[in-house]
Amino acid sequence: MDLSVIILSYNTKDITDICLSKVEASKIYCQKKMGNKIEILVLDNASKDGSPAMIRQNHPSIKLTASFENTGFSKGNNLIMKEVKTPYILLLNSDCYLEEESLYKALAYFRVNKNCDALGARLNYSTGNLQPSAGNLPNPLNIIFWILGLSFLFSSFHPKNKNYFSKNHQVGWIMGAFFMLKKEIFDTTDGFDEKIFMHMEEIEWCKRIYDFGYKIWYVPSVSVIHLHGASTNFDLGSSYFNELKGIKYYLQKHYGIIYYPVKLFLILGLIMRVIVFSLLFKTQRAKIYMKGLSVV
């Protein structure tokens, strides 16, 4: 085997079914073009919607591990990555739909660019619009600019500029929805920090990957559809809340006591957002930011 595709599934039966069909089609195309051997592994995180039975029936060639508990994104992926023996791994969300050429283009890029150790794809919403999926590594300064709504003045860890996503280039982090890497990275860095259940886990890992001297690239010619939020039942408020928790953990882990002056700006930024969105009568958004004050 040359590539192991690892997919975590959690109560997304119909979406996962389509995802796996797309992966299988991309696998066949890649194997015909390059002769690569590719395996597909799924960890079902204790779904209650019949996902394991569907996978066994509709995709019998896929290796399925059915967990009795929801291990979360970090622990679940680490468990499967420990098992694989292939030189390359692709971590793929169950709400991502590959194009037929996606696996071929990604593996081919590793062969062309010897400085590429991990690769992120262009992610598109179901509408076809770009989903920002890479950025600069967070640091105390760009987090302060971000929470105050001033990211445009400094190198953002959440860039929105379309030019940033228009060309191949080295980046600080890539989104975990499509995360292809050399297996040696996992062996060297021990994978995701399992103290992070969901959100910011790929960014924290990318920080350690960078610190070990590996190179991470964003490659827009590899393109996939990402049904953003499907794995959290499209609860984007929960996603923002968990991101704030992840940012706190990230700063404390990598910057120590510097977190505490940054915390003051996080509180200030959240209060400003609560006030602004309350005045705009967007009470749901205001409540999300108010809730965020309890975790920073």
UniProtKB/TrEMBL annotation:
> Which InterPro entries does the record associate with it?
Glyco_trans_2-like, Nucleotide-diphossugar_trans
Tell whether Transmembrane is among the UniProt keywords.
yes
Q: Which UniProt keywords apply?
A: Membrane, Transmembrane, Transmembrane helix
| Keyword Transferase in record | no
Q: Which domain of life is it from?
A: Bacteria
Which Gene3D superfamilies does the record match to this protein?
Spore Coat Polysaccharide Biosynthesis Protein SpsA, Chain A
The chain positions of domain Glycosyltransferase 2-like read 4-187
**Where are the membrane-spanning stretches?**
258-281
Q: What protein name applies here?
A: Glycosyltransferase 2-like domain-containing protein
From the broadest rank down, the organism's phylogenetic lineage runs:
Bacteria, Candidatus Daviesiibacteriota
